[in-house]
């Protein structure tokens, strides 16, 4: 056991470990254009940050009055996203550095995301992050997506960790709410700074209102050490 005790750390993927949102936006824009929605904007996309791709396409069908089956729209979006993700996905350097610190200290880590298994595999393998995490949980592995706690609880189960000993890193309000519902502490690093006052972030143990610009691996690691000490007291 590391000097961080029983601590386990669970990372969201999109917008937290990697800046995949530009790829998701482009994939969404192209897919929606194919089905008759030509004016999907980045501002539109921001409202779906933190929502699983499967839940997003269900919201699209309602918002845009689409008759296309949800599975077909999901497949069209995922296909385009995979092409973009394999070509290039940006990893946040400080997040990779934190994963490396935790790996060196023997702290169990997981990635829990609302993305599909195929999308997660493409990103994690293509960026080399797969070598730094032991557990991967996708939207397909649980009944409900965020803000339900299912994804994080399944990650904890696979890690063999008590939810009380888990800390989640999240960029979106639904994810922060899911962490709270799972009984876990949360470091919130908002992808969209203007959403920092969203009620979903209110329960975060640590809210970095400046997002990734404010996040550093060393400061997060120090905070995690303090959390571990508090839990073991």
Strand content: 5-15%
- Domain tally: 2
Low-confidence stretches: none
Mean pLDDT: 94
Number of helices: 9
Radius of gyration: 17 Å
Number of strands: 8
CATH architecture of the largest domain: 3-Layer(aba) Sandwich
First-last Cα distance:
16 Å
CATH H level, superfamily name of the largest domain? HAD superfamily/HAD-like
InterPro entries: HAD-like_sf, HAD-SF_hydro_IA, HAD_sf, PGP-like_dom2
Protein name: HAD superfamily hydrolase (TIGR01509 family)
GO molecular function: hydrolase activity
Organism: Streptomyces murinus
Briefly, what is this?
With 233 residues, the protein is of the alpha/beta class.
Describe how the helices and strands are arranged.
Blueprint: E1 8-11, E2 18-19, H1 21-34, H2 42-46, H3 53-64, H4 70-87, E3 90-91, H5 93-104, E4 109-112, H6 117-127, E5 135-137, H7 150-159, E6 166-170, H8 173-181, E7 185-188, E8 206-207, H9 217-232
Helix pairs in contact: 1-4, 3-4, 4-6, 5-9
């Amino acid at each position: 056991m590391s000097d961080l005790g029983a601590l386990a750390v669970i990372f969201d993927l999109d917008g937290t470990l990697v800046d995949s949102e530009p790829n998701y936006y482009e994939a969404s824009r192209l897919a929606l254009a194919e089905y008759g929605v030509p004016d999907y904007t980045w501002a539109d996309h921001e409202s779906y940050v933190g929502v699983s791709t499967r839940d997003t396409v269900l919201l699209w069908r309602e918002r845009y009055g689409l008759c296309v089956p949800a599975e077909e729209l999901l497949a069209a979006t995922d296909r385009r996203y995979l092409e973009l993700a394999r070509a290039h996905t940006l990893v946040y350097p400080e997040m990779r550095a934190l994963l490396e610190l935790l790996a060196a200290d023997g702290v169990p880590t997981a990635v829990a995301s609302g993305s599909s298994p195929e999308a997660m595999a493409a990103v994690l393998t293509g960026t080399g992050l797969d070598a730094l995490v032991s557990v991967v949980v996708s939207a397909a592995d649980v009944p409900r997506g965020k803000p339900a706690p299912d994804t994080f609880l399944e990650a904890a189960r696979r890690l063999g960790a008590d939810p009380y000993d888990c800390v989640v890193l999240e960029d979106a309000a639904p994810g922060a709410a899911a962490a709270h519902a799972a009984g876990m502490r949360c470091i919130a690093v908002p992808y969209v700074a203007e959403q920092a006052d969203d009620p979903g972030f209110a329960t975060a143990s640590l809210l970095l209102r400046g997002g990734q610009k404010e996040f550093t691996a060393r400061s997060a690691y120090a905070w995690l050490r303090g959390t571990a000490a508090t839990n073991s007291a």
